[in-house]
Amino acid sequence: MNVLGIDTCFPALSVAVGREIGTPGARVTASTEPMATGHAERLLPLIAGLLAQSGLAITDIDRLAVTIGPGSFTGTRIGIAAARALKLASDTPIVTFTSLEAIALSPSIAPAPSEDDLVIAIDAHRSEAYAQAFDAATREPIGPPRIVAMTDLASLSRGQPVFAVGTAAQAAVAAITAAGGRARAQPGMMFPDMAAAVLRAATRTPETAAVEPLYLRPPDAKPQDGKSLARASA
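-> C-alpha cells emitted (234 positions)
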C-alpha cells in the first residue's frame, strides 16, 4: 500500500510518502518544514517533490492520511482541503489522525514504562492546552483530545504515572504532582510525525463521512451580536 500523509495543524508543514507499506520493502520519505505561514503555497510542491523521490505518481497513492486538528484554524483547514481535493480527483480513501495522535506516534518520544499513560500537551494559549492521553506501549488513544485549563491538566491522569510530552508538559507535571500523582516531562515543541502516521495508516479504516476539522474551541473572529453590514445604496 502506498500512503500520502499531510499535516498543517501547527507552525510547520509535514508531509510523508510511504511506499509498499505493510511489506518487507516498505520505505518512507518525509519532510517537516517549520513555518508560521505559507502552508498553502508550499504544500503541493512538497508533495510533488516527495512523490518524485519515492518514484511514485499521485495516481499510485492508495490511501491518504491527514491530521484534523486541534491546531491553528487556518492551518488545519489547508491540510484537510488538500486531502479532500485529492480524494475527489482520484477517489483515494482518507484516514484521519488527531494532531496530538500523530505526535504521540513519533519515535523521538523517549520510551516510557508500559504501565504509564502518555499525555501529549501542547500550549494552546489563554492558559489552556490541547491535550490527549495515550497508552504508552501501543500509542493508541485512551480518550479524545481536549482543551484543558493548564491548572486542570491533572484531569488527564487515570491514576497511573504520566509521561507528559510537549510545550505544556511541565504544566501537566506540576498539576498532576500537586494533585498527588506521579509524572515526568519531555518538554518542548514537537510536530506531528507523518512518517510514523503513514506506517499506522494502513491499519486504519477509511472515513466514510466528509472529513471535518477538529477545532475544540470557537474561532477568535466572530460577528458582533445584533450588527450587520449596511447595504450600499443604489
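The chain has two domains: 3-100+191-201, 109-187.
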